[in-house]
């Protein structure tokens, strides 16, 4: 005899457990490789930002041969953002998103999976969409040649949306981002001297309307060393959460 009551009882429990598991897996895992280099695990894909690891003595514990991203995103051409791009892209066969000048530079060195963009453009990769936005910063390759414009990126999936600012000064263009996107978190430079400092980063967080900020571009070199206690206090006073990760730390948002 068919037990209808038992069938109805168990099916909702199966569905509930599946949905709960899915929600957990969709939260991004982030690994900090030092300076401005992060690996974001999102929707089953790994996105690597601004690969500068092997020349950084503070990141000497990291073996870059183990890093296998699906996508590499590069904000500008300075050595402290692109140093390991060729080797990591070749070993992983990752797609690369950057401005046209950088994807062409990489292509000349044998990296063939470039997807060139420019400021204001968007691209849909299936698992996420990416919009390239303006950054206020210079950009040149290690040999001094022109590397196009410095940029930032807004990454969006159905589950999460975040902003990777790259190297930038505080700029009123940031207030355009929340007109189109509701950010869950943002990566902002806070080291001063070459980029925004702490005070301007707090202002930037308000312009982009993000209450959760992951600091980057700090402590790598003497000119960008920061007072961590002061940084936390400045963001806390503005009711904004600041995260200053440790190198080689993986954390979940």
Give an account of the 3D structure.
The structure is a single chain. This protein has 253 residues and is of the alpha/beta class. It has a single domain (28-245), classed as Metallo-beta-lactamase, Chain A. It has seven helices and 14 strands. The strands form two sheets. Strands 6-5-4-3-2-1-14 form a seven-stranded mixed sheet, with helices on one face. Helix 4 (100-107) links the parallel strand 5 (95-99) and strand 6. The longest helix has 22 residues, at 4-25. Residues 1-25 have low confidence and may be disordered.
Give the topology.
Blueprint: H1 4-25, E1 29-32, E2 38-42, E3 45-49, E4 71-73, H2 79-82, H3 85-92, E5 95-99, H4 100-107, E6 114-117, E7 122-124, E8 129-134, E9 151-156, E10 161-164, H5 177-180, E11 185-189, H6 198-208, E12 212-216, H7 228-237, E13 241-243, E14 250-252
Parallel strand pairs: 3-4, 4-5, 5-6, 10-11, 11-12, 12-13
Antiparallel strand pairs: 1-2, 1-14, 2-3, 7-8, 8-9, 9-10
Keywords:
globular, disordered N terminus, 253 residues, seven-stranded mixed beta sheet, Metallo-beta-lactamase, Chain A, alpha/beta, single chain
């Amino acid at each position: 005899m068919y037990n209808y009551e038992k069938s109805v009882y168990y099916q909702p429990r199966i569905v509930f457990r599946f949905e709960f598991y899915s929600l957990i897996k969709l939260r991004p895992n982030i690994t900090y490789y030092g300076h401005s280099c992060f690996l974001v695990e999102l929707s089953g894909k790994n996105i690597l930002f601004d690969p500068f690891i092997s020349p950084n003595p503070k990141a000497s514990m990291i073996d870059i041969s183990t890093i296998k991203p699906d996508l590499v995103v590069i904000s500008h051409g300075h050595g402290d953002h692109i140093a390991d791009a060729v080797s990591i892209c070749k070993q992983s066969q990752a797609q690369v998103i950057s401005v046209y000048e950088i994807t062409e530079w990489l292509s000349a060195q044998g990296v063939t999976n470039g997807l060139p963009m420019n400021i204001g453009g968007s691209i849909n990769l299936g698992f996420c969409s990416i919009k390239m936005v303006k950054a206020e910063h210079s950009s040149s390759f290690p040999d001094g040649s022109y590397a196009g414009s410095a940029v930032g990126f807004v990454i969006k999936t159905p589950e999460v949306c975040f902003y990777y600012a790259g190297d930038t000064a505080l700029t009123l263009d940031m207030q355009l981002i929340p007109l189109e996107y509701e950010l869950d978190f943002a990566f902002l430079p806070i080291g001063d001297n070459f980029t925004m400092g702490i005070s301007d980063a707090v202002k930037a967080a308000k312009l982009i309307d993000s209450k959760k900020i992951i600091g980057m571009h700090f402590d790598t070199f003497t000119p960008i060393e920061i007072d961590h206690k002061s940084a936390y206090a400045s963001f806390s006073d503005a009711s904004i959460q600041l995260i200053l990760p440790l190198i080689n730390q993986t954390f979940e948002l």
